[in-house]
Design a protein that fits this description.
With 210 residues, this protein is of the alpha/beta class. Helix content is 23%, strand content 34%. It is globular, with a radius of gyration of 17 Å.
Length: 210
C-alpha cells in the first residue's frame, strides 16, 4: 500500500508537505480513494512551525483570542499562536489561548466549564488537519456559537473547495491538487460495489490496515 504513496507540497512553502496513499479507505463519514497522511505535520516541529507560519500570515489581520485545535493539531496551534503574537500585526503581544475540545458521539463540540471562558465572547480560530466537505468545520462553528463565541476563521492543511458564509477558510493544500480524489457515502461507494478490498481505516490518529 505505502509503495504507491506520493507527496503534495504547499505552494507558499514546500517545507509543508503531506503524504498521499492511493487505495480504498474508510473514514467515519465516508469511503475515499486516497489516505491523506498528516503524520509529519502533526508530529515534527519543523514542519509544524512551517505550516503555522503560513496560517499566521493569512490571519495576521484578524483579531484572535483563542485557537481551537481539531485532529491532534495542538502543536501546530501553539506555533500559530506564537507566530501571531511575536510578529507585527493586530495580535502582536496579545495572549492567545490554544485549546482542544471534546466531541459527543454525534459529533457535537463540548467544552468543560474551565474552558468555556476561552470561547465565550471571544474571537476563535478553528485549526484542523483536513476539511474536505466542511462538515467538521461547520460542526465546530455551531459549537463555538453555542458557547457564545465568535468564529473568525477556519485554517486547514488540506481542504476541499467548500465555503462558509461569513467565515474565511484558509487551505494550505487544496483537494483539487490531488487528481481523482473522491469521497463517497458508504452506501454509494463504487469501489465496494466492484468488490475492491478496503486497505485501511482512517481517523485523526492515522490509518490501520485491514
Amino acid at each position: 500500500m505505502e509503495n504507491k504513496a506520493y507527496e503534495l507540497f504547499a505552494k507558499r512553502n514546500n517545507q509543508v508537505r503531506i503524504r498521499v496513499i492511493p487505495g480504498h479507505f474508510v473514514t467515519q463519514h465516508s469511503h475515499v480513494n486516497a489516505c491523506v497522511d498528516m503524520t509529519r505535520v502533526k508530529s515534527e516541529a519543523k514542519l509544524a512551525r512551517a505550516a503555522a507560519k503560513l496560517f499566521a500570515e493569512s490571519f495576521s489581520h484578524v483579531y484572535i483570542d483563542t485557537i481551537i485545535t481539531l485532529e491532534r493539531m495542538k502543536m501546530v496551534g501553539a506555533f500559530v499562536a506564537e507566530e501571531l503574537t511575536n510578529n507585527t500585526g493586530i495580535n502582536m503581544n496579545q495572549e492567545i489561548a490554544v485549546i482542544s475540545p471534546e466531541f459527543t458521539a454525534d459529533e457535537k463540540l463540548i467544552l468543560r466549564d474551565n474552558l468555556v471562558p476561552y470561547v465565550k465572547n471571544r474571537h476563535v480560530l478553528i485549526l484542523a488537519a483536513t476539511a474536505t466537505t466542511g462538515m467538521t468545520a461547520m460542526g465546530a462553528i455551531r459549537g463555538i456559537r453555542y458557547y457564545d463565541g465568535d468564529p473568525v476563521g477556519v485554517a486547514t492543511v488540506f481542504g476541499g473547495t467548500f465555503e462558509i458564509p461569513g467565515v474565511p477558510v484558509v487551505r494550505l493544500i487544496g483537494a483539487e491538487e490531488m487528481p481523482g480524489y473522491t469521497s463517497y457515502r458508504p452506501g454509494e461507494c463504487p469501489l465496494c460495489k466492484k468488490g475492491v478490498k478496503i486497505d485501511a481505516l482512517i481517523n485523526s490518529y492515522g490509518y490501520s490496515k485491514i
